[in-house]
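Researcher: I'd like a structural prediction for the single chain below. Treat it as a standalone chain; there are no partners to consider.
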Amino acid sequence: MGKSKINYLIILLITVVFLWFFFQSVDWGKTWQYLKQANPIIMVPVLFLAPLHLVTRSIRWKFLLYPLKSDLRFLKTVEATTVGFTVTLIFPGRVGEVVRPIYLARSENLSAGYLIGTIVVERTFDLFTNCFLLGTFLLVSPLFDFKLHIRPEAYRHLYFWGKSGLGLAAFLFLVIILLYFLKDKSAGLFRFIGKPFPEKVKARIEKFGLEFIAGLKFFHSFLRLLGYFGLSLVVWLGITFLYWVYFSGFGLRIPYFLVIPYIFLTMIGASIPTPGMAGGFDYFSKLALTSLYGLDPNLAVGLTIGIHSLQIVVTCTLGYVILWKNGLNLFQARKMGEGKN
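Model: Treating it as a single chain, here is the predicted structure.
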């Protein structure tokens, strides 16, 4: 059995386990009754807010790439971001994270290795920004105890995942800084990785490594780092706003401030490389809804299925349209991430 098949089997097993916990003891009759209570007037703006993060992420990415190409077409960054997320939602292994920079590199004649380096920066900032927002929430939440009804075990979950996320973000920051500021040694590392391969492949690995390191040069400017962090806050506060409006559509009066820990936990679940975020996102969403807000598990399942389905349908529809407009199909896009196209 090939290595890729083993990886797919492991991902499938993880997906099944999380889905089993998610669907455990669900009363589908009650879940359907809850879903029917959605306010259609509020669901309409939710439909338009669902792809908003694709736009804010593209603005942030364009800001990151400004030193490389100041006249970068914004529409192409939106296209690349949407196609990347579409591939991630359909296929396992988060291959869309690689498809996204390669799509833009080919559209704008840029270095793929450089752009992949910027995706590493982006994901590190996503994690750091969520840890910052969660830390802010945990710091000031005692002032709102009379409004919040969080179970003690939920706080334990938040502290555990918050510390874990912050530790991982700090580690990634350190690796990025070392890779960039120790360029010569980093280049030597890629040369070492390429040693066992034929000369042509070895040269490609070394070239990719140098381009990747160049894509991390953003960390050289503190002011640009600060600006990028501000745009990261815009991305994640916008995502928080989407969920806040969505919850309002079901008559839930959850303060906007209290949606932040929910977003953090679902981010943890969504980072598990299952196709369509299935299982990981769903389980952590149900866990957050029941432990943070004390919701009926059947309602938590209904809310999760609703927003998860909405995000997949909206994103993939936009992704399909973009691919069709550019004469591509989903499998050709996926092959970009596997280096086969």
